[in-house]
């Protein structure tokens, strides 16, 4: 699907077209257009900017693999097609690692199939070797359940607004992890509200509160035909999240130490990609401790957290956060004989997790939300278009003013949307 996509600022000349054509060549148009719930077909059928950025990144990495390791690539693609959607992320991460990482003088080589200890290796000019294991920390079941419950709560909120013909926002703030029972109770409470007040607060219990607020003002009036809404839900994660992080990291260390060679001329490296909601700072501290332990079983851990963020001008951008933690032995084994370089096809690079800033629409003040906490924000604003003096219709306030919020223009009861704005700003394959 190339038609209708925005290829601006993606690359030079025919780079975007070539990247997309490479995806078609590698995976096949039939698979890409199938109704499978796999990650890649779901991404392919969208035309928003986020899907285009993800697919361009994948296509550029495929180009490199197609040139250097076509046989390994074919095997990885077969595995992606066979695996359930949740299990395929590991193969995508391997493709992205190979596409983004390289050495100046040495070659990164994929391991043979079914190797239990590592995924790539490289031989340095000084005679030493590195064995690299690719691991993922994906969203937890608790995080997935929170998002699922939040989406269901929003559906019930919109139903309530429709029965009262109201256009309002609701914010839920909790100091404990919200359970299924909490969400059920919140839905019961919402159903009982009369919504006569456009601004009101309700204390559910000592740890949970619900706040109703007016939607942010705009140069355009809200359409009376369509329900405009906004839902924000905040709560901390369960303590089990942190135990899960540590278990994932330790399992990765145990696995590579069990199956990869060791010695004075060998380094063990783990490339750890983590979900956008993972607590990057906490994981980095655990990684630093493990690498620097006496008789450490791993020499270097590269933490990688991609995220789709907003810059100072509120423009969306793909950010690649990297943090490399290595022991003194690792530096000695490298001995300056070569250097790794990372070249993401698109986006910015940072060494710290992207902050989450919450803006109070009534006061305009912003607060930094704890990076480890759960957060849900979704909303749709339907704005009445205006007429120019020449009779033409315009609504230049479309797009996404904040993560998860979309603005739509309404013209004679027809909705005019911005096709480049994603419904959910969540990465599927990166």
Shape: globular
Q: For the CA atoms, what is the radius of gyration? A: 24 Å
Q: Overall mean pLDDT score?
A: 86
Provide the β-strand percentage band. 25-35%
> What is the rounded distance between the termini?
19 Å
Question: How many extended strands?
Answer: 21
Helix content: 25-40%
Query: Largest sheet, if any?
Result: 8 strands, mixed
Could you list the spans in which at least 5 consecutive residues all have pLDDT below 50? none
Oligomer: single chain
List the total number of helices.
11
Task: Provide structural commentary.
It is a single chain. With 430 residues, this protein is an alpha+beta fold. It has eleven helices and 21 strands. It has helices spanning 15-27, 29-32, 39-44, 49-68, 70-82, 89-100, 141-164, 180-192, 240-259, 280-291, 328-334, and strands spanning 101-103, 109-110, 120-123, 129-137, 168-174, 200-205, 208-214, 229-235, 266-274, 300-310, 316-326, 340-342, 348-350, 356-359, 366-369, 374-384, 386-387, 393-394, 399-402, 405-411, 414-416. Strands 5, 6, 7, 8, 16, 19, 20 and 21 form an eight-stranded mixed beta sheet that branches. Strands 2-3-4-9-10-11-13 form a seven-stranded mixed beta sheet. A two-stranded antiparallel ribbon has the order 1-12. A hairpin with a 2-residue loop joins strand 20 (405-411) and strand 21. Helix 1 crosses helix 4 (49-68) and helix 9 (240-259) runs parallel beside helix 10 (280-291). The chain starts with 14 loop residues before the first helix and ends in a 14-residue tail after the last strand. The model has no long low-confidence stretch (mean pLDDT 86).
């Amino acid at each position: 699907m190339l038609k209708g996509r925005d290829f601006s600022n993606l690359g030079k000349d025919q780079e975007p077209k070539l990247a997309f054509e490479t995806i078609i060549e590698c995976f096949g148009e039939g698979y890409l257009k199938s109704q499978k719930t796999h990650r890649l077909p779901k991404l392919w059928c969208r035309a928003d900017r986020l899907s285009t950025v993800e697919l361009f990144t994948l296509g550029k990495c495929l180009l490199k693999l197609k040139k250097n390791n076509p046989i390994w690539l074919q095997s990885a693609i077969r595995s992606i097609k066979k695996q359930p959607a949740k299990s395929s992320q590991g193969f995508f991460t391997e493709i992205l690692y190979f596409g983004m990482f390289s050495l100046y003088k040495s070659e990164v080589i994929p391991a043979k199939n079914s190797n239990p200890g590592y995924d790539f290796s490289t031989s340095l000019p000084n005679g030493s070797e590195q064995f690299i294991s690719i691991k993922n920390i994906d969203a937890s079941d608790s995080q997935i359940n929170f998002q699922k419950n939040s989406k269901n709560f929003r559906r019930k909120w919109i139903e309530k607004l429709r029965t009262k013909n109201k256009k309002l926002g609701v914010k839920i703030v909790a100091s404990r992890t919200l359970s299924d029972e909490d969400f059920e109770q919140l839905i019961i409470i919402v159903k009982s509200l009369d919504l006569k007040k456009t601004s009101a607060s309700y204390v559910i219990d000592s740890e949970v509160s619900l706040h109703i607020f007016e939607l942010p003002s705009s140069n355009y009036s809200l359409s009376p035909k369509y329900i405009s809404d906004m839902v924000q839900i905040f709560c901390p994660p369960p303590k089990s999240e942190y135990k899960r992080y540590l278990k994932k990291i330790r399992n990765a260390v145990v696995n590579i130490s069990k199956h990869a060679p060791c010695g004075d001329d060998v380094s063990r490296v783990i490339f750890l990609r983590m979900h956008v909601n993972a607590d990057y700072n906490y994981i980095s501290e655990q990684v630093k401790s493990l690498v620097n332990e006496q008789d450490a079983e791993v020499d270097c851990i590269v933490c990688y957290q991609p995220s789709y963020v907003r810059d100072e001008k509120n423009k969306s951008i793909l950010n690649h956060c990297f943090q490399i933690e290595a022991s003194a032995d690792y530096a000695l084994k490298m001995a300056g004989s070569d250097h790794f370089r990372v070249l993401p096809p698109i986006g910015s690079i940072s060494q710290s997790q992207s902050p989450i800033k919450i803006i109070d629409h009534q006061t305009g003040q912003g607060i930094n939300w704890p990076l480890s906490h759960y957060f849900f924000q979704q909303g749709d604003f339907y704005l009445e278009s205006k007429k120019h003096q020449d009779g033409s219709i315009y609504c230049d306030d479309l797009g996404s003013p904040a993560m998860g919020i979309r603005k739509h223009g309404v013209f004679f009861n027809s909705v005019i949307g911005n096709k480049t704005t994603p419904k959910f700003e969540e990465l599927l394959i990166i």
